[in-house]
Write a structure and sequence with these properties.
The protein folds into 3 domains: 148 residues, Aspartate Aminotransferase, domain 1, CATH 3.90.1150.10; 179 residues, Type I PLP-dependent aspartate aminotransferase-like (Major domain) (Aspartate Aminotransferase, domain 2, 3-Layer(aba) Sandwich), CATH 3.40.640.10; 101 residues, Oxidized Rhodanese, domain 1. Strand 16, helix 17 and strand 17 form a beta-alpha-beta unit. It is α/β, with parallel strands linked by helices. It is 36% helix and 14% strand. It comes from Deefgea piscis. Belongs to the class-V pyridoxal-phosphate-dependent aminotransferase family. NifS/IscS subfamily. GO terms for molecular function: cysteine desulfurase activity; iron-sulfur cluster binding; metal ion binding; transaminase activity.
Length: 517
């Protein structure tokens, strides 16, 4: 590893469509509520009144950002709860119908079709669930929609796709629905739209729109649901009458205040679209220069400025993610909810881009609050990733062919060492050695100083070094994520290595050094 490569140790987060760091103003709002205005908004005394003011302030800010009435907003735990509430509300009036037709976008987040199937079963409905086809730009087939929407009870679409950034033609969908003899209810997933995309929720007569705070610099566990006046509504949670009796349970006031602070930042013009577009273009140009064979999967037009989805044909997504992760670049292969699913992206398959592109797809996503210095550093590391891939591609592909047994979960759990347990393990085994089984190209990410000897033995060369390791020397296996070390632990324990453990969450699970460090 060269000195230049060794400097790439700090983390650059480019997976904002999965979640985002909390905005300082949002954190300050949470602290204000936790320390000062901690009362229950439902209490009539002074502390409760101050809490109610916080709640009303946040709701007003959200309503102003979305240009909707304040009484149409319900604070929830997140978009998933909002989707459940919307689906239940739309399907509940259909009880007793012989057959209920529901259309949903073929690239919709899995939460939508899963919720439709779940509530259809709970309500005893016979559902005809039809996926709306999309074109290669990820936009809905409006002709198909016009032919199949008549008689539908509900239509579900996204404002923008979380994997590709494709922006739906909501105006076109609205025209199709308006032309029907009876307009179906319309649910629009607004998660990726909040703070990034102007949508006329009122003018388009959208009935339900769920949102999630943690996708836009608020904490996890807070979201909201917009419900159009007059749309059917069935509450998911009954109880103490909170949220106008629409969503009972004591309000998550710290989260609500944080989401309100984010919306106040939007209203203050903190995030400029021009800067976000420029950052996206810089990253796209860097990727295309580093990887000449790269194919862009995100649409060239009608795409969120936060998102770049791309493929390197013939190279599995996992190989690419390992490479980027080794350089401290945090990306994903698609939705974080499906990160453990090894199947090709269903979104790209629905777009007709083919299994090869879908199997090698990577999503890079930035937040409106992206730091210019991070973009500079990311461009540099992307260039380095291109150089590493050119030199070590065969090694990467060879690593995937190394035969390891399935991980013995009971064994790997018993002999796991977490980051918190590491100092105690080192103290108990002063002669211990950390066996770094990452590949040479993975060494681009520095191994932190841990206070014990470190020996690098690439897993791809396992056959050449396994027999040379002393059987009774304390060993701590370490890879990037803990997966390969857990598999190797099972193998080596079976071969008589009795003094062997593994770093449970890999080197990635250790505290990251800051840029200053």
């Amino acid at each position: 590893m060269t000195d230049a490569t060794a400097t790439h140790c700090s983390e650059i987060y480019l997976d904002a469509n999965a979640t985002t760091p909390i905005l300082p103003a949002a954190q300050a709002a949470m602290i204000r509520v936790l320390s000062d205005n901690f009362g229950n908004p439902g209490s009539p005394h002074g502390a409760g009144i101050r809490a109610r003011i916080e709640l009303d302030r946040a709701r007003a800010a959200v309503a102003e950002v979305l240009h909707v009435p304040v009484d149409g907003l319900i604070f929830t735990s997140g978009a998933t709860e909002g989707i459940q509430t919307a689906v239940l509300s739309a399907l509940h009036p259909q009880r007793g119908a012989a057959l209920v037709r529901v259309l949903y976008g073929a690239t919709e987040h899995k939460a939508v079709p899963e919720a439709l199937a779940h509530w259809g079963e709970i309500l005893g409905l016979t559902l005809e669930l039809l996926p709306i086809p999309v074109d290669q730009q990820g936009r809905h087939d409006l002709s198909w929609l016009a032919e199949n929407a008549e008689g539908a009870a509900l239509v579900c679409t996204m404002a923008a796709n979380n994997e590709t950034g494709a922006i739906s033609d909501l105006d076109g969908i609205a025209r199709v629905l308006d032309a029907l003899p009876v307009r179906p209810l319309w649910l629009v997933d607004g998660v990726q739209a909040l703070g990034k995309l102007a949508v006329d929720w009122l003018g388009l007569r959208i009935d339900y729109a769920p949102f999630s705070g943690h996708k836009l610099h608020a904490p996890k566990g807070i979201g909201l649901l917009y419900v159009r006046a007059g749309a059917p509504f069935t509450r998911l949670l009954a109880g103490g009458g909170q949220e106008g009796n629409a969503r009972c349970g004591t309000e998550n006031l710290p989260g609500i205040a944080a989401l309100g602070a984010v919306c106040e930042a939007i209203l203050a013009g903190q995030w400029q679209a021009g800067a976000l577009n420029a950052a996206q273009q810089r990253l796209k140009a860097a990727l295309q220069q580093a990887f000449p064979q790269l194919v862009i999967n995100s649409p060239s037009q009608h795409c969120l400025p936060t998102t770049i989805n791309f493929s390197l044909l013939g190279i599995p997504s996992k190989c690419l993610l390992d490479l980027f992760d080794a350089l401290g670049l945090r990306l994903s292969a698609g939705s974080a909810c499906n990160s453990k699913n090894a199947k090709p992206s269903f979104v790209l398959m629905a777009m007709g881009l083919g299994e090869e592109r879908a199997s090698s797809a990577i999503r890079m996503s930035i937040s409106p609050n992206v730091c210019a210095a991070d973009i500079d550093a990311a461009v540099e590391r992307i260039a380095l990733a291109g150089q590493i891939l050119q030199t070590h591609l065969n090694d990467m592909l060879q690593l995937e062919q190394v035969a390891l047994p399935d991980e013995d979960l009971e064994l790997s759990s018993r002999y796991a060492v977490t980051a918190e347990q590491l100092p105690a393990w080192i103290a108990a085994h002063p002669a211990g050695v950390l066996l770094d089984i990452r590949e040479q190209w993975e060494q681009a990410a520095c191994c932190p100083s841990l206070g014990l000897a470190i020996t690098a033995q690439p897993l791809s060369q396992l056959a050449t070094w396994l027999g040379q390791i002393e059987l009774d020397r304390p060993l701590l296996l370490a890879c990037r994520s803990g997966r390969r070390s857990g598999q190797l632990l099972s193998l080596m324990r079976g071969k008589g290595y009795t003094q062997i453990w593994h770093l449970a969450d890999g080197l990635a699970g250790l505290p990251m050094p800051s840029a200053a460090d």
